[in-house]
């Protein structure tokens, strides 16, 4: 009987992505897993000198949409290496405009703004809802964020019937023809028990001065009511919000042999999930950090899809600031090799740390497409479920170079092999890798890898699991590649201290 590969990791990933329709929710999902594994929250605004200790596990967030987590080896010394994996929490989507209330030909519509480079035609005729962050006024008068996720579909972008549109190519205007409908104006008036005339009179009524129109004025009131209910407050207590649209259809395992994943946001929640799980798994043993002199770190950034040049993006000071602060952390007083001398010069500890550190930039890769084989370079055609893909580009759209490839191969060689079936034998070693370059006559995307490698000067490699339909509202990936990447990342963290010393360049 043929062995059936385990899809346990893939099923766990589905729970992660289904709970994470927005970057805010993705960070919430990540922190819940980290807290369960014993990580403690710290804040950028606080001093870390008395909080962080060798052997400790910590995380911090910025803007609620980016998160950095790290574990400090008990043998840590200032200037030692940091093993890092970076990914991103955002995906192309439609975001509700600051003034979204629209009405046309008896329909209530919601104005949206495109975020990132999405395949926007895939958003038509889908059951859509809203999720994001709402700022609410509490009973004490403070303003605090609440995450909301409306489960039921309330929006839809309908296509024009083929009888009225015989164009060979599906083309549309993103400003005028990408408006979702939210319902019928008459039905909303009926719900409120109003006529058009009474509604107009309500508009004319005066209230307290507001420097900016309230959410109830800028958006359809019933949408604000729904958001408020999800946030557990009254509609008048909603001060502002950042909401995006998402497809209510759940992520699922698919394919004849359960070998595929059909899901939104594979780019890049799959690599975010694998980063979190790889770090947690590397610390599963109670003695995992006892002899480790490095720091194991993951950073999940917002705004990669729009260039990363924001306060919480990869092109901000978030990772450099964290690395600068942890690079000078004192060694444990019980460190038998050497106690930390407070008079020791740590002025160059940050630069020393960067010179010996390594960053894996983890962002999804392209699988070969059977219907478009000519779009791929003949000898670089990654396949699903055959391992994580190393991404190479001569023009530095990716940051990969040969020392990085050598290091990753060693980590892959030592990684746990994917398990098979419920009665599988003990894990053996080795997970597969693939390599990808684009054709010379094709454009190439980029990642957070090049910008971070330039900012930090740390050795960097770009990789990702292969997928189809990147930037579509529904994407396709390999179910077994989830476990491949988790095991690869676990091995990277466990073995980096030894591998860093063996692969010498400068």
UniProtKB/TrEMBL annotation:
Bias kind Basic and acidic residues: ranges: 191-207
Alphabetical UniProt keywords: Aminopeptidase, Hydrolase, Metal-binding, Metalloprotease, Protease, Zinc
Coiled coil: none
UniProt cofactor(s): Zn(2+)
The UniProt record lists the keyword Phosphoprotein: no
Location of region: Disordered: 190-214
Family under the similarity heading: Belongs to the peptidase M18 family.
Name of the protein: aspartyl aminopeptidase
Species annotation: Westerdykella ornata
Species classification: Eukaryota, Fungi, Dikarya, Ascomycota, Pezizomycotina
């Amino acid at each position: 009987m043929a062995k059936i590969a385990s899809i346990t990791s893939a099923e766990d990933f589905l729970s992660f992505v289904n709970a994470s329709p927005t970057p805010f929710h993705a960070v919430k999902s990540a922190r819940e897993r980290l807290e369960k594994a014993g990580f403690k929250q710290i804040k950028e605004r606080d001093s870390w000198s008395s909080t962080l200790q060798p052997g400790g596990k910590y995380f911090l967030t910025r803007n609620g949409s980016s998160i950095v987590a790290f574990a400090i080896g008990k043998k840590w010394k200032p200037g030692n290496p940091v093993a890092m994996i970076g990914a991103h929490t955002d995906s192309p989507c439609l975001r509700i405009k600051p003034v979204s209330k629209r009405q046309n030909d008896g329909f209530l519509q919601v104005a949206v703004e495109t975020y990132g480079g999405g395949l926007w035609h895939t958003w038509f005729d889908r059951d859509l809802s809203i999720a994001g962050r709402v700022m609410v006024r509490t009973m004490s008068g403070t303003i605090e964020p609440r995450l909301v996720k409306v489960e039921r579909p309330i929006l839809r972008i309908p296509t024009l019937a083929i009888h009225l549109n015989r164009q060979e190519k599906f083309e549309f205007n993103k400003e005028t023809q990408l408006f979702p409908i939210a319902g019928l104006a008459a039905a909303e008036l009926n719900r409120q028990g109003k006529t058009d005339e009474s509604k107009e009179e309500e508009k004319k009524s005066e209230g307290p001065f507001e420097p900016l129109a309230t959410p109830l004025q800028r958006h359809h009131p019933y949408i604000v009511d729904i958001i408020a209910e999800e946030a557990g407050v009254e509609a008048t207590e909603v001060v502002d919000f950042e909401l995006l649209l998402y497809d209510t259809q759940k992520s699922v395992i698919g394919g004849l042999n359960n070998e595929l994943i059909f899901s939104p946001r594979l780019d890049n929640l799959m690599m975010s999930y694998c980063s979190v799980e790889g770090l947690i798994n590397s610390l599963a043993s109670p003695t995992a950090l006892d002899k480790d002199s490095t720091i194991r770190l993951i950073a999940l950034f917002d705004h990669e899809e729009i260039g990363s040049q924001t306060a919480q993006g990869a092109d901000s000071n978030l990772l450099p600031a964290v690395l600068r602060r942890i690079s000078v952390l004192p060694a444990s007083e019980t460190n038998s090799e050497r106690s930390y001398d407070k008079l020791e010069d740590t002025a160059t500890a940050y630069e020393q740390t960067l010179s010996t550190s390594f960053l894996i930039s983890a962002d999804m890769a392209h699988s070969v497409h059977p219907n478009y084989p000519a779009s791929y370079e003949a000898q670089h055609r990654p396949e699903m479920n055959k391992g994580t893909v190393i991404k190479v580009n001569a023009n530095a759209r990716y940051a990969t170079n040969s020392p990085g490839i050598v290091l990753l191969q060693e980590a892959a060689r030592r990684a746990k092999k994917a398990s098979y079936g419920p009665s599988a034998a003990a894990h053996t070693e080795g997970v597969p890798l693939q390599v990808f370059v684009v054709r010379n006559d094709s454009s190439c995307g980029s990642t957070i890898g090049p910008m971070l490698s330039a900012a930090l000067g740390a050795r960097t490699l770009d990789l990702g699991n292969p997928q189809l339909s990147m930037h579509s509202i529904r994407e396709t990936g390999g179910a077994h590649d989830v476990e491949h990447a988790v095991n690869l990342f676990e091995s990277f963290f466990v073995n980096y201290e030894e591998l860093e010393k063996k692969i010498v360049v400068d």
